[in-house]
Design a protein that fits this description.
mainly alpha, rod-shaped
Length: 117
């Protein structure tokens, strides 16, 4: 998902760069290096700021849309990362000898204590 946002922001910034660069050029005096350098600098700055803004806003919008997706479907979209984290947390709370859920005793990292019901 981040790759899509980054690609979209990049395309938008390149489009803005070339548009602003060619609009800022003085076509009556096109070979003046000062005008070309200023146009290049201005277009580069605007494109960089636009890329940053598009990346941040795009990331916020995509994550807002993703928040509405069910947990089972989000695991597929995020390559199963959340599912692996949930399974690791569950394994950390399970006693290998007894399948009952256990909690880790604070202060003693090697000891576990069964949950009271």
């Amino acid at each position: 998902m981040t790759r899509t946002v980054r690609t979209g922001a990049g395309i938008l910034s390149w489009l803005a760069f070339f548009t602003i660069f060619f609009l800022r050029l003085d076509y009556d005096n096109i070979f003046d290096p000062a005008i070309g350098a200023l146009a290049l600098l201005f277009a580069g700055g605007v494109a960089a700021l636009l890329w940053l803004a598009a990346y941040i806003l795009g990331d916020i919008l995509v994550k807002g849309v993703v928040e509405d997706i069910d947990e089972e479907k989000i695991d597929v979209l995020e390559d199963g990362l959340l599912q692996r984290v949930r399974e690791a947390k569950l394994r950390a709370r399970m006693d290998p000898e007894n399948p009952e859920v256990v909690t880790i005793v604070p202060g003693h990292p090697g000891k576990v204590q069964p949950e009271t019901k």
